[in-house]
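FW: tagging you since you asked about this chain on Friday. Here's the raw sequence from the shared folder, copied in full. Didn't touch anything.
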Amino acid sequence: MSLPSQYRVWLAKRPLVIGMLHLPALPGSPRYAGDLKALVESVLADARTLQAGGIEFAMLENFGDSPFFPGALPASTIAHMTAVAQQVRDQTGLSLGINALRNDGCSALSIAHAVGAEFIRVNVLCGARVTDQGIIQGMAHDLLRLRRALDADHIAILADVDVKHSAPLGVRPIEDEVHDLVERGGADAVIVSGSATGQPVDRDHLHRVRSAAGTAPVLIGSGATAGNVAELLQTASGVIVGTSLKRGGRVEEPIELHRVQELMSRIRDK
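HL: got it, structure written out here
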């Protein structure tokens, strides 16, 4: 698949480093802390730390909203994600992506289109997976039609294969899964992750995905650290990194500048 020129340059960037902006629980979620202003400031602080450490791209997701909806998100969640995303866009120079957990790619695309974001992440673009939200089914058919209707082909779709926190309904070679994502599902890049948030990828798995993806970029979706990033980037085109940048390596803690700087230093020196 030929990449639209609007994002061919950044998606082809080697290596591509995307820092995670994990939203605390939003209003309406079971764990919402009740202070929306503090929530926004915490996300903006993380965004500024990523930028100060040399990371140019960020992915905003509603990580704190568990238990996640298996399908469409409520209007209140979409509205608050849009508002925070706009703040990040207005107050930093970061290029932005959106992930609407667990699998609301159409809302992610709509938010991205509204705020001028460059990409989205979709956990189950094709096929079906068994998750803690139940069975989640692919939604490429709806997402690609919405992207065309919005004239939003400039917004890239980064799609997981064998996504973390899930299991397959049936056994298929990973190569077939990757081929379907790229050739039939319209994925612009393929994401490989470990079994759970922060867990490392299986190296054999990574190599098989890279071999099957053809010209599509392959990104690491979990487990990237300053210690292993140079090795991972010998195979992958880039990394999406979050947990290892946080204080104490804990996903709910703030991003620390020295961790971002160390990661970027290891990438520059590779």
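FW: The longest strand covers residues 16-22.
HL: agreed, and The longest helix spans residues 36-52.
FW: great, closing this out.
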